[in-house]
Write a structure and sequence with these properties.
The chain has three helices and 14 strands. It has 322 residues and is mainly beta. It folds into two domains: 111 residues, Double Stranded RNA Binding Domain (2-Layer Sandwich); 172 residues, Porin.
Length: 322
């Protein structure tokens, strides 16, 4: 059962939204649009809840239009109710974990917007004398979709990649990104990351050792998201720019060479959102370097080179805001 403080809060929001100069031309024209997940009460049930609180729902004193849109994101239900009368338009948004409680609150808000004197008495539970279904209000021609909410994400990422040389190396990354919504949609997110990868190679002839350091910035744009509850999958093309530094380690002094680095690639990233804000991610990617590099010690054959096609596997943990 919804508590008394909850009803007082809803009533205060509804009264604050009632226009002070509502039109008073008598008319029986009204429209009602409704969209909700299958597990929520139906359009007819919602109409019955409003009609039980005010006679103005079926016999309005002035024309109005009501649209109710309920959608589920990864953690909860999000609802938007729009009430239009004359030149006044009121929009309210609510969030709740359960659909029945959310629909009950929305119906109460609609009733008060129509009639400030609407009944505040709690409705009986299902099967205990609830009012019959009401079919009389025509549906609105269309319902606008709720805009996908924007969110930010930051966190560390660990990668095993073969980009600098033929040998696999470990890269440390820090990323920050922006996304929208939680369901399946196109152009779902973008991410900027900064990475540092280190690999080593030793000459089989002289035993001399070289270190290769690749420092880059990567920009990703995810084309779409396929989502089910907290699980999601995104394919994300990227462009990477940076600098590749080779250091030959010698007893008489190190020798350093530095070259610009660029690559294009694609990463396939599954993620799992848990504890409302934490996002655990993995990734498999392929990368095409824009330049070819070969490394050798003076007077020796080739030590190593960067591959024409490189691969990576990643694991990340991000924190979402909000």
């Amino acid at each position: 059962m919804i508590s008394v403080p909850f009803w007082r809060l809803v009533l205060g929001l509804a009264f604050a939204a009632v226009p002070a100069n509502a039109a008073a031309t008598p008319s029986d024209v009204a429209t009602f649009g409704y969209r909700a997940p299958p597990e929520c009460p139906t359009r007819v049930d919602f109409s019955a809840r409003v009609a039980a609180r005010t006679a103005g729902w079926l016999s309005p004193t002035s024309p109005f239009a009501v649209t109710v849109a309920i959608e589920r994101n990864a953690q909860q239900l999000v609802a938007q109710v729009t009430f239009a009368r004359g030149e006044q338009r009121t929009v309210r948004e609510l969030q709740a974990a359960g659909c029945n409680e959310l629909v009950q609150a929305l119906a109460f808000i609609v009733a008060v917007l129509i009639d400030p004197q609407a009944s505040t008495t709690p409705l009986p539970a299902p099967g205990e004398g609830r009012p019959p279904p009401v079919y009389l209000l025509p549906a609105a021609p269309s319902l606008p979709r709720l805009p996908a909410a924007l969110w930010l994400i930051v966190g560390p990422e660990l990668a095993i990649e073969t980009a600098p040389t033929l040998a696999a190396g470990v890269a440390e990354r820090f990323f920050l990104g922006i996304g929208r919504g939680d369901g399946s949609l196109a152009m779902s997110s973008a991410r900027l990351s900064f990475s540092r990868a280190v690999t080593h190679a030793s000459s089989p002839i002289s035993g001399a050792r070289a270190e290769f350091v690749l420092e880059t910035a990567r920009l990703e744009g995810c084309l779409l998201r396929v989502s089910d509850a907290g699980l999601a999958f995104e394919p994300c093309p990227f462009v990477e720019l940076g600098r590749l530094r080779a250091v030959g380690i010698h007893s008489g002094g190190n020798v350093t060479r530095s070259q610009p680095w660029g690559s294009l690639g694609l990463v396939l990233r599954p993620t799992w959102t848990f504890a409302r804000r934490l996002v655990l991610g993995a990734g498999l990617g392929v990368q095409l370097p824009l330049g070819r590099y070969r490394f050798a010690f003076t007077g020796e054959p080739e030590l190593t080179r960067n591959p024409q096609v490189s691969f990576e596997a990643t694991l990340s943990l991000g924190v979402r805001f909000p």
